[in-house]
Design a protein that fits this description.
The protein has one domain (2-72, 112-363). Helix content is 71%, strand content 3%. It has 15 helices and three strands.
Length: 364
């Protein structure tokens, strides 16, 4: 008991505060969206609270555990993730054109949300075991193979957004590890070729239409471009103080599609206004600032790469989600961490939070 009380006294409470604010904003937005039904339907709120309760317990257990054990089990975890992704293509259920969920009756599980964490652990373990300070072809290939396997399995669902997220986290980790310039140029050329190949062989029609409509919003304003148009209207309608929780016309009259997931940022902006948006941005800013401080205090390579990878996963998701709400990026389906509705997304975000707290407790 003395051990655990000492650990809790070293808890990073500012990091926890940022997560708490985001969780409250997410639940509040889901409650407001639930009021739009007649009669009000709070099923999503209840499911989110159940997932939140489970996630908080998991996060606490991870925080009190030694995160360094992940390095020893990185290979086993990676193999397990590969088996799960393969089984998903055979036994998974289709949701909105993507075979990315296992259905267990009352709830669905989206494995990619947890597999991306496993991939970060595997890459961190590989980079930490290298002998040279510069990442050259040997180290690059050693990390590219596991990333490529996972990315192909995920794109076969197809879920290009999650695959791009994993590749993005990998690239950032390589850059922090000291990527050789020749390898970097080759990576850019290969990446461009892969994007072109994905356009012709992996992208579904609706995914191509999302990108084309982003480049030319007038192409389909009432079809594919409708979601982003309504999101921008909702954000502008919120003004400074917002219309009030449950009083946003875009979300309450259901003009804003997927308000509980992809476009929950727009729903918050409409009902809570610029103050709500400022609170979201400030909470994320505090969250990533605490991670950055922790990275600068790390004493071993595995810890540093793990923090960089986990932080990058959430940072990319946050940036892409907010940008697509503003019409600055194509709609990819990436949720807003800690805020968007979705049990798997919330659980994975809390797992990342628990691992970061585990690092914070032991580095102090």
């Amino acid at each position: 008991m003395h051990k655990y009380s000492r650990l809790l006294s070293s808890f990073d409470w500012l990091l926890a505060l940022s997560v708490f604010v985001l969780l409250v904003l997410g639940i509040s937005a889901l409650y407001g969206i639930g009021l739009s039904s007649a009669p009000p339907d709070f099923t999503n709120v209840i499911k989110q609270i159940v997932a939140l309760s489970i996630g908080l317990v998991v996060a606490l257990l991870l925080a009190l555990s030694n995160f360094r054990l992940l390095r020893s089990y990185a290979g086993t975890l990676y193999a397990t993730g590969g088996v799960v992704l393969t089984a998903l293509l055979i036994f998974g259920v289709n949701r909105r054109g993507t075979t990315g969920w296992f259905s267990f009756g009352f709830f669905d599980v989206q494995p990619v949300e947890f597999v991306k964490i496993i991939l970060v652990v595997a890459i961190a373990a590989i980079l930490a075991s290298r002998t040279r300070r510069i990442v050259r072809w040997k180290e690059f290939i050693a990390t590219a193979i596991p990333v490529g396997i996972y990315s192909i399995l995920v794109m076969m669902q197809p879920d290009f957004g999650s695959a791009a997220l994993m590749i993005g986290a990998w690239i950032v980790m390589l850059l922090f590890a000291g990527l050789d310039k020749k390898v970097l140029l080759s990576l850019i050329a290969t990446g461009s070729a892969m994007v072109a190949g994905a356009w012709f062989f992996f992208f579904e029609t609706f995914q191509r239409n999302r990108i084309l409509t982003f480049l030319n919003p007038e192409l389909d304003p009432l079809g594919v471009g409708y979601n982003v148009t309504q999101a921008k209207i909702a954000i502008g309608a919120g003004r400074f103080f917002g219309r009030g929780l449950g009083f946003g016309s875009q979300s309450q009259l259901q003009f804003l599609p997927e308000a509980q997931t992809d476009f929950i940022f727009a729903a918050i902006a409409e009902e809570l206004g610029f103050l709500g948006v400022l609170l979201v941005v400030a909470a994320f800013g505090l969250f990533f600032w605490r991670i950055w401080r922790l990275i600068n205090k790390t004493r071993d390579d595995f810890t540093g790469y793990l923090l960089i990878g986990l932080g990058t996963l959430l940072f990319i998701q946050m940036t892409v989600n907010i940008a697509m709400n503003l019409g600055m990026m194509p709609v990819t389906g990436l949720p807003l961490p800690f805020v968007s509705y979705g049990g798997s997304s919330l659980l994975s975000s809390l797992v990342i939070f628990g691992l970061i707290e585990s690092v914070a407790l032991r580095e102090r």
